[in-house]
Amino acid sequence: MNPDLKEWIWLANLKGIITRKKVELLRIFNSPAEIYRADAVELAKTGILSRDNINAILSARHREAADRAIEEIHRKDIDVVTLNSSTYPELLKNICDPPICLYVKGKLAADVLAVAVVGSRRASGYGLSLARKISGELAQNSICVVSGMARGIDTAAHQGALSVNGRTIAVLGCGLDMVYPPENKKLMESIIENGAVISEYPPGAEPAPHHFPVRNRIVSGMSVGVLVVEAGERSGSLITARLALEQGRDVYALPGNVVSVNSKGTNKLIQDGAKLVTSVQDILEELHWYKHFDTENTPGPGGFGIHGLNDEEREVIGLLSYESLQIDEIQKKLPVEMPLLHSILLSLEMKGLIKREPGGKYRLEV
Amino acid sequence: MLSVVNTCGLLGINGYMVSVETDISKGIPAFDIVGLGDAAVKEAKERVRAAIRNSDFEFPSRRITVNLAPADMKKEGTSYDLPIAAGILAATGVISRDALSGCVLLGELSLDGTLRPVNGVLPKTITAREKGFEAIITPCENAGEASVVKGIKVIPASNLSELVKHFNGEINLPYAENDADLFSDEESKNQPDFADVKGQEHVKRALEVAAAGGHNLSMIGSPGSGKTMLARRMPSILPDLTFEEALEITKIYSVAGLLPPDSSLITKRPFRAPHHTISSISLIGGGRIPKPGEVSLAHLGVLFLDELPEFGKNTLEVLRQPLEDGFVNISRINASITYPCSTTLIAAANPCKCGYYLDDTRECTCTQNEVRTYLGRLSGPLLDRMDIQVEVPSLRYSELNSDTVSESSADIRKRVNKARSIQRKRFSQEGIYCNSQMTSLMVRKYCRLGKEEADLLRKAFSRLGLTARSHDKILKVARTIADLEGAENINAVHISEAIQYRILDRNLF
Question: Is A276 helix (H, G, I), strand (E, B) or coil?
């Protein structure tokens, strides 16, 4: 165990001073223990601290909170990975404001090759199924999928990676002893088993709204690229994309229907220069710097098992390959009676070729 | 001097005979009415006194006692005015007592002796006929509904003095006859028709299935997608009313005092759409003086609950039992009243609080939690009564403007009638009349599946995540779809369509 752990936690929890300055101080003083022991003159000599900063450090000269935190993490079986630790993700170390301490449940590795898959909480069926598909394929290529375990796309991304027993990391905006959103309790357990759930917030921290944008820098920071699957015009995923650019990471975006509110943000990202991604190859292509991927063997888009369909079923598939349609719209284009159309749609759905979305629309399953 | 006049009281939607006994004796002048009358009955004194005087008869200045027998049943309303007045006039010898026997009187009096309309004349007339009375005297405005009943003379009277002359043989009031064709098509022409609704073909189909099998249906869709418009047209495709059914509906409306003036029989199936602020009492009936509620007023018609999640939780809770049983029972200390309520329930709901959760064109402003709780309110006890659940997507402008002619209600009703007659034949021994009423035992008996169909259903359950409670409902609806086609056995297409009507069970939201 890290002998300085108490001081590390003390530094991480220190209020009134921004993370970037804390990192700077660590560079000057070598260890948090020395920061803890430094007097006002020594602190002032660094030249980066304001008077308020120095007062904040001096007035927080007690470590009871850190004692309690250590006790708690032991009790709750949470690991702490500090900035100098060998398992601290290498990429994350290099951003300008890396978290001083990471609380971890599961296994974290320094050299993890990760891609973040993020998107809107209120996603469409299209977004959800593609997030699941691409994450699964990334995981099959031994790329770790990083996301935020929020509702919608994040959840789908984790599920996709887990479905192929791949590695996935969830970065939370609250303490690790909490499950937020609560319905993801099971998901969190399997993420811990197959990867890690991490957070810079100590156990007991509530999921406050301002935690999430801060959390996003970790999501992008530990990844080589960020795939935005679906984002509205003011989605939080766009913050992640912006942070990724600031950190020098790639930004990928999945294109969507131009009239869909769920894809306004991603389409805008593409307009602004993000890489348009239609399949996992588009991402793997960009990652050959890091690792050689055999791009031949990964499944491409399309290739539906349309063998063994009858004429009407094939016609419906043909119609749906352009856009998702309501049952009335399909009927207008095909001379089929409503009852029969119901059974065609159900049979296609049961074969896993199409999917019924809330709102009565049918679309091709990817 | 004693006189007895016959009249009728109301218990639920049925009448019972009341004899108004009047005794005039010597003593200090007084006027007492006994026999558990309510305030309106007590006030009859003043109306009767004034009406008799103003009709140029003498009001006896003696001790008058009126007893409404049976004296242990509560009497309410103003229809006792006329029998009390007639009783006093008979006791004083103005009217011959013999003339009154074999005759039932009812009506409210105004101070000048004119007769005013009262509620519940139809069920009272039916009771009078059953008890073997020859004639019933009603206010002119009520003659229409009374004359529907055959086998009793309905004599409309406009005022007290005219009636006295009639009883004394000075004039002969004419009988009201009702020869008009009550079920003429004139009425149904004014009904909203499915031909006016553009698009939403799959919802119309679902409504057709619901009408054919008597299934309850719920619709989910954004505001403006036409849920109300579609529901309002549901009565137009329900099977034609029989005379007995029309009589039953009219009885309820007569008791509730909602019969339009000068109308005789209600020949259209009712459509009731109570607002979501309705109390549970006004929904299922009751009150200090029991009145039928909206669910009974929708008897043999359609009860439409728009914005279902906005209804009070308790309000929906009380609806469960009546929907299951087909009647409402209201218990009072001295009587329990039953109102029938076999109705088709159509519920509509937005997918979320702001309504645009599933809309392509407008952004929904609800949080994920709000969406969840809103739709959560849809599930639960009432959902168990919904055999068919459909989504109503918002229409695109091009559809509103299209020239395609929609099918008229009359054409759809033909198919519905056919399917209903198949069901009536099938269930002639079972005591039910449509598929939705099947018990699970009957489902096993009448909804047998072949191997292929059973396979399909089993696969659908595992692949689509249907819940167990859908099972019987899918079979019932599939049975109706097969009946609409005139098919003997349920085939895969029928099952498929029925499965498509269970969206709320599938956790799509």
Answer: strand
DSSP three-state, residue A21: helix
CB contact under 8 A, A327 and B202: yes
Task: Note down pLDDT in tens along chain A; length 366 residues.
Answer: 577 888 888 888 888 888 888 888 888 888 888 888 888 888 888 888 888 888 888 888 777 778 888 888 888 889 999 988 888 998 898 899 999 999 999 998 888 889 999 999 888 888 999 999 999 999 998 899 999 999 999 999 999 999 999 999 999 999 999 898 888 999 999 999 999 999 999 888 899 989 998 999 999 999 999 999 999 888 889 999 999 999 999 999 999 989 888 899 999 999 999 999 998 988 988 887 666 555 444 443 344 455 577 888 888 888 887 778 888 888 888 888 888 888 899 888 888 888 888 777 888 876
Q: What is the per-residue burial (b if ≥16 Cβ within 10 Å, else e) of A335-359?
A: ebebbebbbbbbbbbbbebbbbbbb
Q: Does B460 touch chain A (CB under 8 A)?
A: yes
Contact yes or no for A328 and B499 at CB 8 A: no
Say whether residue B373 is in contact with chain A using an 8 A CB cutoff: no
Whole-prediction pTM: 0.70
Contact B391 A259 (CB under 8 A): no
Q: Examine residue B70 and say whether the peptide bond preceding it is cis (omega within 30 degrees of 0).
A: yes
Residue B329, classed as helix, strand or coil, is strand
What chain A residue is nearest to B222 in terms of C-alpha separation?
A359
**Which one of B368, B399, B500 has the shortest CB-CB distance to A346?**
B500
**Cβ(B45)–Cβ(B33) below 8 Å:** yes
Give the distance from residue B444's alpha carbon to the nearest chain A alpha carbon, in angstroms.
Answer: 23
Task: Return the CATH class of domain A114-169+213-289.
Answer: alpha beta
Query: Measured between CA atoms, how close is A176 to chain B, in angstroms?
Result: 22
**CB-CB contact of B503 with B390 (8 Å):** yes
**Domains of chain B in sequence order:** 2-167 (3.30.230.10), 186-415 (3.40.50.300), 438-509 (no CATH)
Q: What is the ipTM of this complex?
A: 0.74
Rg of chain A on CA atoms, in Å: 24
Whether B496 sits inside 8 A of A346 (CB atoms) is yes
Collect all residues of chain B within an 8 Å Cβ-Cβ radius of residue A346.
460, 496, 499-500
Of A260, A261, A360, the CB nearest to B391: A360
Cα pseudo-dihedral B122, B127, B128, B133, rounded to 10: 140
Q: Is the dihedral of CA A277, A282, A288, A289 positive or negative?
A: negative
Q: Which residues of A touch B363 (CB under 8 A)?
A: 232, 261
Residue range A311-364 forms a domain whose CATH class is mainly alpha
**Contact assessment for residue B111 and residue B81, using Cβ atoms and an 8 Å cutoff:** no
- Chain A positions with Cβ closer than 8 Å to B: 121-122, 151-152, 232, 259-261, 326-328, 331, 338-340, 342-343, 345-347, 349-350, 352, 356-361
